[in-house]
Design goal:
The complex is a heterodimer of chains A (258) and B (277). Helix content of chain A is 34%, strand content 31%. With 258 residues, chain A is of the alpha+beta class. Chain A has one domain: PPM-type phosphatase domain (Phosphatase 2c, domain 1). In chain A, the strands form 3 sheets. Chain A has a 6-stranded antiparallel sheet with strand order 3-1-13-12-8-9. Chain A has a 5-stranded antiparallel sheet with strand order 2-4-6-7-11, with helices on one face. Chain A is globular, with a radius of gyration of 18 Å. Chain A starts with a strand and ends with a strand. By secondary structure, chain B is of the alpha/beta class. Chain B has a single domain, classed as von Willebrand factor, type A domain (Rossmann fold), CATH 3.40.50.410. Helix content of chain B is 29%, strand content 26%. Chain B contains 7 helices and 16 strands. In chain B, the strands form 5 sheets. In chain B, strands 1, 6, 7, 8, 11, 14, 15 and 16 form an 8-stranded mixed sheet that branches. The radius of gyration of chain B is 18 Å and the shape is globular. Classes of the chains: A alpha+beta (258), B alpha/beta (277). At the A-B interface, helix 3 of A face helix 1, strand 4, strand 9 and strand 10 of B.
Chain lengths: 258, 277
């Protein structure tokens, strides 16, 4: 099986690229394997190092590459990596004579927060296979085969809110983690396209579908062009109040016969 | 209305008016462990800390808010101490960088495995309790009006500023209603300035929180502060509801004689603009 992917990510308007807390992984344009995973995460803005956390979650999901994910075990593994990275960060600050300030210490105790949507594709037949996705929060997966055939985790533009479920780097906020995880399995045929998106652009995408439009054509055109085209289009949507000013990440994944 | 994005390019402001009159020395709601002045100072310091934390990232504090604390008692003026003294409105990054002192407190937190652990956290202090002199509330509101006029002149499209007045007594410099009305008529393109009132008391009267009527209020002064309070916009009404308060479409940003937990909740709800970008 061959996975061909492209992705685009831009910070909220007025922000800097380093402040973009979304993350998608992997970054290779083409991967050949019979089982592989991709993941997207949206770090919450009110967290200390949400970018680091969304990066750890996505990279770990792809490396776990499992269709029988134990979310508790997975999260504990990610927290260990996060804690280690934080220790390294604190040590570096000390070495540079810039110890953490009071607000950094207090935020660090609270931890970081992020959504996560990961999907694993398994080539199980000559024409395709199955996929399994795990999701916490409001990052989205869309499956297309000429037309939209699957949306995960929901298909209702009114359901987008300001308080999505999140995975935390602080175990104290993960007590009800299992109840926040949504799981979905589906079938794919070679030639199917999957889109993974963070909430702002997903909300626009769902709204377009509800208006019986085909937003994937617009996304495809813009992904084929350069990044500037997508940034301009996002500016245009935000200017018309059709897109929330937020970090935007879109990944397109095509599954092909190798 | 009340939907403008709050960003570094389009910040909003919060202004706290704090009664520092002699009667603030009295115990809070019958509790003899501390004065109202101490309880309010603690609540404001806690709120300032939360505002800083909401804007803080690893790379620093983003200036989503500018904050002013105006005290009224022996004098009317900015109540910040230390390097911030004399400042009417201060960017939240400057507040975060310049507390008067940093105490260490112990906080009980869940450990993630069903137990509770004690965690030491930093508790910065910007504002110290003062309780002396009369209650020149009208002058304090007038000062707020001038600060807000300047702010709105340079930030015409901001999320409307929020003013929270905390008092325990009767104004000693005349009826403040007219100035309060003027403040509530000030506006940005996103709506009118919001004026909320928090009436502390040493009495045993039943608390009144986010009421839509002044019928249950026991005295003239409480009714005056009710009239001087804005109706909660929808997003704050939903926030109050989610915190367990009973609210209606006409609920005012006013609480009377509540305990300190409710006072902190009120301050948090009043400043919980969610549209941070």
């Amino acid at each position: 099986m061959k996975l061909v992917s492209s992705h685009f990510s831009t910070p909220k308007k007025g922000g800097f690229p380093r402040e973009n807390e979304d993350y998608f992984f992997p970054h290779e344009a083409e991967i050949r394997r019979d089982q592989l995973s991709v993941a997207i995460a949206d770090g919450a803005s009110e967290g200390f190092m949400s970018k680091l956390w969304s990066k750890i979650l996505t990279i770990s999901y792809v490396n776990f590459d499992r269709t029988d994910l134990d979310i508790r075990q997975f999260t504990d593994f990610c927290i260990d990596i996060y804690d280690y990275q934080m220790e390294v960060y604190i040590q570096r600050r000390k070495e540079r004579s810039k110890p953490l300030r009071w607000f950094e210490e207090n935020l660090m105790y609270k931890g970081s927060f992020s959504t996560l949507l990961g999907v694993t594709f398994v080539n199980s037949s000559p024409t395709g296979g199955y996929w399994k996705s795990y999701s916490v929060g409001d990052s989205f997966l869309f499956q297309l085969r000429d037309e939209l055939i699957e949306v995960f985790p929901m298909m209702d533009s009114s359901a987008f809110g300001n308080s999505p479920d999140l995975i935390s780097s602080n175990p104290a906020y993960n007590l009800e983690l299992e109840s926040r995880v949504k799981v979905k399995t589906g079938q794919f045929l070679f030639g199917d396209t999957f889109y993974l998106m963070t909430d702002a652009i997903a909300h626009w995408f769902v709204t377009q579908i509800e208006e019986e439009k085909m937003p994937w054509n617009t996304i495809d055109e813009l992904l084929e062009a350069d990044n500037d085209g997508l940034i301009e289009y996002i500016d245009h949507l935000q200017g018309e109040n059709r897109l929330k000013n937020d970090d935007v990440t879109i990944a397109r994944v095509n599954l092909l016969e190798d | 209305m009340y939907t403008a994005e709050i960003s570094r390019g389009n910040p909003t402001c919060f202004l706290f008016l704090i009664d520092q009159s002699g009667s603030m020395e009295d115990p809070f709601g019958g509790d003899t462990s501390g004065s109202k002045a101490e309880a309010v100072a603690d609540a404001i310091n806690r709120l300032l800390q939360n505002l800083v934390l909401r804007c803080a990232k690893a790379e620093g504090i983003r200036d989503y808010f500018h904050v002013g604390v105006i005290g009224y008692g022996v004098k009317v003026g900015p109540a910040f101490g230390g390097d911030l003294s004399g400042e009417d409105l201060v960017p939240i990054s400057t507040i975060g960088d310049q507390p008067l002192m940093i105490e260490e407190r112990t906080q009980k937190m869940p450990d993630g495995a069903g137990g509770i652990i004690e965690q030491k956290v930093k508790f910065p202090v910007w504002f110290e309790p003062v309780a002396k002199g009369p209650t020149p509330m009208k002058q304090a509101l007038k000062r707020a009006e001038n600060i807000l006029l300047n702010w709105l002149d340079s930030h015409p499209d901001c999320f409307p500023p929020v003013v929270i007045n905390i008092s325990d007594g009767e104004p000693t410099d005349g009826d403040p209603s007219q100035v309060a009305d003027t403040i509530m008529q000030l506006e940005s393109s996103d709506g009118n300035v919001l004026l909320f009132n928090l009436h502390l008391s040493s009495s045993k009267d039943a608390p009144v929180e986010f009421s839509d009527s002044k019928d249950d209020l026991p005295d003239e002064f409480a009714r005056l502060l009710f009239d001087m309070s804005s109706v909660l916009p929808e997003n704050l009404r939903l926030e109050a509801e989610s915190e367990g308060f009973e609210v209606t479409d006409e609920s005012r940003g006013f609480i009377f004689n509540s305990d300190m937990v409710k006072v902190i909740q009120f301050l948090d709800i009043g400043t919980r603009a969610t549209n941070l970008r």
